[in-house]
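Session log. Operator J.P. requested a structure for one protein chain; no other inputs attached. Running the standard single-chain path with token output.
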Amino acid sequence: TQSTWETSNAREMIHDLLLALSGFPGDIIVMSADGQRFYVDPKIDFLSESDKVEINGICMLGAFYKHIDDFVSSLTCFDPPLEVNGDKTDQKRAFGIYVRALCLGLEEITEEYRQCLLEFEQEFLQDPGLTIGHLHVKLLKFETLLPALDRLVKDVQATGCKGGQLLEMLFNCSVSGNPIVEESMNRLRFHCHRVLYQQIAAWMIHGILVDRYHEFFIHRLDDPHAEVSKRLDAIAADEDIHIPTSSSSSSSS
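Structure written below.
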């Protein structure tokens, strides 16, 4: 019957929508060639144009989530190398421990998003009469949050920032008029600050420099005396002053 056909199509559509929001294409909702967005297949004829517009708008969250999740997975599924050897694979992985801490925070936030999708799926199985509008309401929080996190990930990938640069970037992102975005960015700052505090504690309390990826603001000098002399020469050149050496002092006396 007509009602049975409509119910079957509605279930299939909801199933595909949940797939797309999880970052996977389906039979009704497909992925663009560049992998940057999901949209309703133009060949689908049982949906009205208004429904397609609404679904395409919601599916943007799936594209944001997929990019964030791919970034997190690429940095948490292996142990990064100690040194960068110039190989492209090493360069991709050598983001450092601060970015790995950032990924832990992103994983926490995206887990809430996945839990939201799971809750709707369970609700829909119990009540097949639920509409896309119900799902839309449940995802309202993420309509502003996921785009902000996606921009953050893209900035980190583009700049390759780590250590203090990443902390500064997160601080700038946390200054937001949106309380949801601000709270999430502060959660990410918490994870990255834990790394900083552990490095400071190791250095101040135990005298141990824990900095495998050269991100800490304290560095070990191979030849500290040569480095000090070099900096003094630079200061003298900038300020046009004369710094007496041991030989000149002895000759004057």
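Operator note: The CA atoms of residues 171 and 189 lie 7 Å apart.
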